[in-house]
Model the fold of this input.
Amino acid sequence: MSNQQVQNQPTAAYILSMIGGILGLIGGLFVVAVGAVMGVFTFGLGFAVVGGIGLWITVCSIIVIVAASKLKSEPMEHTKWGAIILVFSIIGGWSILDFIGGILALVYNPIPVGQSPYGYGPPPAQAYGQQPQYYQPQSPTQQTVTRICPNCGRVVAENVKFCPYCGKQLG
Done:
């Protein structure tokens, strides 16, 4: 599936997984280099141990990078790619970023193009470009004609016989 078939992309999961995978790749290659230097001084034993760990981190990081790329290109398969990212971030043990990216990929909720993002019911008015009711102009209401009480000076409705504030009879 192409990434055009969903309305929302798993952007955070993709970016975090890619950054974690790239950091893991750089770190794994660094550990391989350290193992190679140690191997010179320990007659190969240092490379076997440290270099092997570095190779493992490098391979796991490459798998995380590939799975993150597939997550972006196939967002409807987010569960599969999120599980792969999560598993290889755990067993690669290098970066927390790809771990978080894998979790975000697992909980990602793709919305296919053409489907309402609001579930099964009809979408709210905003989805059709209409304003919500509390923004729509109110129909003009008939305003009451007012007058001023000659005794207390307050505004009162035209149709009252006595002022509600001072009690004076209004002719």
In short: The radius of gyration is 34 Å.
